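Backbones bend. To wit:
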Amino acid sequence: MRICFCIYVLALFVILAGCGHPNKKQEIDIPQPKEIAKVAALPKIIKTPIGNPNSKEKELLGKLLFYDPVLSGGKDIACASCHHPATGYAEFLDLSIGANGQGLGSKRAFKEPNIIPQMKRNSPTILNTAYNGIHGKDDYDPENAPMFWDDRVKSLEKQALEPIKTLEEMKGVHFSKSQILTEVASRLESIPEYKSLFAEAFGEDAPIDSIHIGMAIASFERTLVANNSRFDQYMTGDVDAISHSEKEGFELFKSVGCINCHNGPMFSDYKLHVLGVPENNKVPEPDSGFEESFAFRTASLRNLRFTAPYMHNGAFQNLKQVLEFYEDISFGKTRNPSVSKEMFDPFVRELQLSVKDMSLIISFLNTLNDDNFDKEIPQKVPSGLPVGGNIQ
């Protein structure tokens, strides 16, 4: 009886001690439920920057500029050379070939003699880049949209100018980086049709300069959308748009952890992650990505049918190889000697992929394909140069 009374008194003391400090911070953290990542259908309406609203005139000018090799140093390559509608506005090469290249897609190669270095990264598709940075249904800012594998510029307007300034992409050896945009503007100024097109798009007093070149190309690129995949139809109410096995794959996609990074309407969190993708042997030095951290931005999973090979350097030829790589790194196996397993993104440890799940996940990923996008190629461009550059 005395023992019970002592225990009662001790318990009461503990309770009163806790109640005696109502403002004292509780020292034991209560676990919070983990936020569940979500996916969604792509919106039908495209946002544009306040300073660059789309117009038919800008879109037409941008399309002609996109296909015109007059924008390149050697007048031999256009934006469309590596982002052609026949290849889903991406390219079938692991690493792209820009200046001094010839041919289209997998047939593209350097002309000889050649002193232009191989590009070190794969050309991502331009399809749906109008939505870059989107998280919720309308949660994105086109003026600050992340671009490129290393997130080095924001907005399509700035992205459009970077290849023109880059040696191995469009600039070549004919002009310096500081000269090329002035040279391109001067060329366009000398072509009467372009003078009229720029005046119609931006006004009679607007100069032909790099700012307006970027704005026009970005306006065209925002028309390159594929936002009616079977998955989009399913998410907007058509329960029969995807099959039972594809729905199973969707559930696995979520449960094994793919959705941790591949989320939102574009199936990308638009963040930078370290995965240790194996290096491409064609690149002489390891590609260290964002600020030499070996981090690269999460790629969108939309229209994967058109964008093989995969990853920032085209390391994997098919989706099965991609999923096998993720299975390996989830067990701490590194395939890149420059990246230790301790450097892996924390999400990697949460992956629970197995071989038996892969075919169903791949079947789900195929519901994200949509080939209903602009494939019309101009008959000619105002410069009179070959449409799309040296691709024949």
User: Anything to note?
Assistant: Residues 1-34 have pLDDT under 50 and may be disordered.
